[in-house]
Design goal:
94 residues, alpha+beta, single chain, globular, 2 helices, four-stranded antiparallel sheet, 6 strands, Alpha-Beta Plaits
Length: 94
Amino acid sequence: MESKGNGRSELYKFYLVSPKSGMDADALAYKFLSIKPVEEVFLTDGDYGYVLKVRNTTKQGKEPKKLISYIKKNGFSCSKAVSHYRYVNQQVTR
């Protein structure tokens, strides 16, 4: 395993979003994907919700304004986890 950094204090932020019940899960996932800098969206099993993988695009680690605005405007509950390191498997090829 190898740690890869890019000079920023945070590589990714993961937003845990719980939307209102009755919303179209696929349509909402694609809406989240259309907001930059969201890179990936995961629909969780069990409790209905999403994990949004968001790349940190600033050295100051500011919140992505469009994403936060959309979450607040729609009254979704949200929490955040911050990744300071990224670990990747490197396979040896011959």
